[in-house]
Amino acid sequence: MNRIEHIGIAVNSIEVAGDVYAKLLNTGVYKIEEVISEGVKTAFLQSGPNKIELLEATNADSPIAKFIAKKGEGIHHIAFDVTDIKAEMERLKAEGFILLNEEPKPGADNKLVCFVHPKSANGVLVELCQEVQ
């Protein structure tokens, strides 16, 4: 793993939360996009090398809607940049981690992604991200 790519925060409204984080980080949202397959709208902010991804559910069955219903708004996941997502997935499986995806899938911000089950990472949802070439 190369570095922390971003921290994902589940929110009720990326508009409202975007304003809060824009003030907090003294920078604006630079990208908003929808990941239809996940039922989520995302907004990204960057401060120096650090990125925050705000996640708003687009339907009641989405993982973000379920997360907010159970835990409320807050930190949803931590994402790590990887050079070779398939190799990293194999390495983690060999180490005994439970992956939520068998294959990398398209994610936001031009990334291939895979999630590591929180049960195998001390209660933290971990996302692997590889830049799509």
Automatic annotation (TrEMBL):
The record's annotation in InterPro entries points to:
Glyas_Bleomycin-R_OHBP_Dase, MeMalonyl-CoA_epimerase, MMCE/EMCE_epimerase, VOC_core
UniProt keywords (A-Z) are: Isomerase, Metal-binding
GO annotation (BP), single: L-methylmalonyl-CoA metabolic process
Name the source's superkingdom.
Bacteria
Top enzyme category: isomerase
Stored NCBIfam families: metmalonyl_epim
Assigned protein family = Belongs to the methylmalonyl-CoA epimerase family.
Q: What is this protein called?
A: Methylmalonyl-CoA epimerase
Native organism taxonomy? Bacteria, Pseudomonadati, Bacteroidota, Sphingobacteriia, Sphingobacteriales
Q: Which gene encodes it?
A: mce
